Amino acid sequence: MRGGRAGDVGGGGARPYRAGFACFVGRPNAGKSTLTNAIVGTKIAITSNKPQTTRHVIRAVLHRPESQLVLVDTPGLHRPRTLLGERLNDLVRSTWSEVDVIGLCIPADEPVGRGDRFITGELAELKATVLAVVTKTDLVDKKRLAEQLLAVSELGEFAAVVPVSAVSGHQLDTLVDVMTGYLPESPQLYPDDMLTDDPEQVLVAELIREAALEGVRDELPHSIAVVVEEMIPEGNLMKIYADVYVERPSQKAIVIGHRASRLKEVGTTARRQIEELLGTRVYLDLHVRVAKDWQRDPKQLRKLGF
Ligand SMILES: Nc1nc2c(ncn2[C@@H]2O[C@H](COP(=O)(O)OP(=O)(O)OP(=O)(O)O)[C@@H](O)[C@H]2O)c(=O)[nH]1
């Protein structure tokens, strides 16, 4: 509906405008978030070297003259052990049913396994076009890559198998081209200047959460949640008030550190990243609170946005 299209002008031979939704799926650590970041070129989806850290569906809009690819970031599918785990899996499935193109990510440096087979089976039921994306090609040599491409193509019926590296940038444009080719003909979905339709607060909360996890992932891998309570613009300054939730007092001590030294670092790191994201100066006020067993309590989960 919104915006005109250069492709309309001139008629004869112009390719149709395509627009639609796509997402990357795959087992934890397959490289989905890193790939999304590399394609979008800005730090929107949050990555970590620990599985299951992507907790929000985040959309990034890739504008091209003849197309618009809306990337939806989903968490990795996994065996639920807590209520949060179940919610995450529901979120993954509902996202899958809404998109036009799905890129199943399989790392080049790990054997194709049961998890990949399971997800491939689930995807076969959907109406979306499914591509296989062999990620992290920079980690293997040509021979290993060729073997992996073969193993992946034997895994299921894919519209295409595309090897990429988010780190070296290898084939990223090709992947976008291939995915775009499978989008439906459609008018432009979002205005030209829009990169993401997610509330800024979600992105800000994710940046704070990532900073709070830095260096303590082994101790508190899934025990931190962040809620941005208020964002108040004041001239060219954005005042942000946020709560960092942990499950237990002992975790609160870890996050805060000796004489609040760690919390200060978290605040500084997060503030820099938020300033980059918002393009304004930021004042960041962080409070650490204990929400007992928040991962298991539906009321707490709702409050924390799950
Ligand atoms: N060398 C290399 N490492 C990569 C590449 N892509 C991702 N990684 C690394 O692989 C790990 C997992 O990447 P993520 O992007 O967080 O994986 P994910 O699939 O989003 O993981 P979940 O959020 O757990 O579902 C991180 O340590 C990344 O740095 C790549 O192209 N090359």
Automatic annotation (TrEMBL):
The keyword Chaperone does not apply. It comes from the Bacteria. Keywords: Cell membrane, Cytoplasm, GTP-binding, Membrane, Nucleotide-binding, Ribosome biogenesis, RNA-binding, rRNA-binding. GO terms for biological process: ribosomal small subunit assembly. Residues 26-33 are annotated as: G1. Residues 52-56 are annotated as: G2. It is a peripheral membrane protein. It is found in: Cytoplasm; Cell membrane. Belongs to the TRAFAC class TrmE-Era-EngA-EngB-Septin-like GTPase superfamily. Era GTPase family. An essential GTPase that binds both GDP and GTP, with rapid nucleotide exchange. Plays a role in 16S rRNA processing and 30S ribosomal subunit biogenesis and possibly also in cell cycle regulation and energy metabolism. This is GTPase Era.
